[in-house]
Design goal:
mainly alpha, two-stranded antiparallel sheet, 2 strands, globular
Amino acid sequence: MRRRYEGLENPGFRYLEEVEVRNPLLVVEDFFDATDLELFRQELRLLFSLSFSNSSYGQEKVYDRARLMCVHQYATRFIEMAWILLNDDYIDLFIREGDPLYQSGGMWRETSFVEVQKRLSDGIMKNCRLLEDQEINNVKFVFDEIFQHQSLSVWQDELDMVLFYSMRSTPMSEERDNGHLSFAMYELLEKLLECIHVIHEVKIKRDEGWNVLPLDTDVINRDYNYFPPQLMMGLYHRMLSLGN
């Protein structure tokens, strides 16, 4: 068993603290200590909607721009956490047959059959409206799909652009040729959010000793040429001065 990201080029985590790089499940615990999953799902949808809409749409909504920055930060933290978990063999995220949380016969797409009602009646997994059974049983299927779609650095940059356009009067679709790709990003982020819920149920609530993982490797976790808090606050004040 080993961490497969040992020796790889520093991926340049932007929001994770060193302790979170060593123990990425702390990101999950921090999220559920701070907010609610379904509330965050709505805020994530609002962030993407604002980035694709003109100023009149934003004027019709009641929201806090500072909160949008928090949503962006959490989304980026989730992506960075998923990259670590995908490349870390120490953390077992499987739900095996016989486990009360194991999913079977409820949702899958290979046969074009999705029994949403069964999932919604599940007291614990009712929040997982997009995940297939196999994706709940092994969330790394979703992580792999996320990074097959685009690399970690591209995810980070594209999320920055979503935040940038959410604070402008000009929609992303009018200035960027690849803006339509953000729709796929949103779907994958929503699936990732549901994976966060699964991990919270399996690893955090059960208290399986996840906070005493081996600390046998040093990982450079900061890109010192990039300062997200300063960048985001500068962007926020600039947008306020422009009156958008």
